[in-house]
UniProtKB/TrEMBL annotation:
Gene Ontology molecular function: any one: DNA binding
InterPro entries: GntR_C (IPR011711), TF_FadR/GntR_C (IPR008920), Tscrpt_reg_HTH_GntR (IPR000524), WH-like_DNA-bd_sf (IPR036388), WH_DNA-bd_sf (IPR036390)
Keyword set, alphabetical order: DNA-binding, Transcription, Transcription regulation
Protein name per UniProt: GntR family transcriptional regulator
Domain of life per record: Bacteria
CDD domains: WHTH_GntR
Annotated coiled-coil segments of the chain: none
Tagged with keyword Metal-binding: no
Gene3D superfamilies: GntR ligand-binding domain-like, Winged helix-like DNA-binding domain superfamily/Winged helix DNA-binding domain
Organism: Pseudomonas mangrovi
Span of domain HTH gntR-type: 7-74
Length: 219
């Protein structure tokens, strides 16, 4: 892997390891040995240590005394707790967009992202579908203008992406249902229909949660 000097090296290492955890290449409970990561990526041990601390803050890694770092477990309680929180964050973000959009141009980026979702769904590309889903969320950041909300969502994004991958790799057919939810959500935002927005997002998150729980049970 080639790293870019213009970006935080520790952040890039964390991103690389996060993708492996999110996709299930590194399993829950698997040890992440600093020396092996250092040698395989040809980076300093200090940068790897900093990357592991980033991943700990993002709930992908646990650092245990005298045992080092290991991939964080993903259990039903954690999945339910994560979605209970994400429902509220998603609703807060969507309500901000509904309150503050003023022209069709404001919503155009979200419609472009919908196109990307359709294409990745048609290609059966889970990685691209999950990334477009989060791009749709990020498109709302300028409307919320809330750095604390943005930081919270970005820190939780890897953990929620892990559950998305877990669910969709098991049941790829569900991507089309998720896409339908995104389309109806944008319609509700355009109509500034806050009760409908909340209902759509609650249903969307509950469905995701149940799929992730079912996938966990089948492992």
């Amino acid at each position: 892997m080639t790293f870019r000097a213009s970006e935080s090296l520790a952040g890039q290492i964390a991103g690389h390891l996060a993708e492996r955890i999110i996709r299930g290449e590194l399993k829950a409970g698997e040890r992440i040995q600093e020396i092996k990561v250092t040698q395989s990526l040809k980076v300093s041990r200090g940068s790897v240590r900093e990357a592991l601390l980033i991943l700990e803050r993002r709930h992908l890694v646990e650092i245990l005394p005298r045992r080092g770092a290991q991939v964080a477990a993903l259990d039903p309680h954690k999945v339910r707790s994560l979605y209970d929180l994400m429902i509220q964050l998603y609703i807060l973000m969507a309500h901000a967009v509904a309150d503050r959009w003023s022209s069709a141009e404001d919503l155009q980026p979200m419609r472009e992202i919908q196109r990307g979702l359709r294409e990745s769904c048609a290609a059966d590309d889970v990685d691209a579908f999950v990334e477009h889903s989060f791009n749709a969320l990020r498109a709302g950041y300028p409307f919320a203008a809330n750095p604390y909300l943005q930081e919270t969502i970005e820190n939780l994004r890897p953990a929620i992406a892990r559950t998305y991958h877990l669910a969709l790799e098991q049941r790829r057919s569900q991507m089309s249902l998720f896409l339908d939810g995104m389309v109806t959500l944008l319609d509700a935002i355009e109509a500034r229909d806050k009760p409908r927005i909340a209902a759509i997002l609650d249903s969307y998150c509950q469905q995701n949660c149940q799929l992730a729980l079912a996938a966990l049970q089948s492992h």
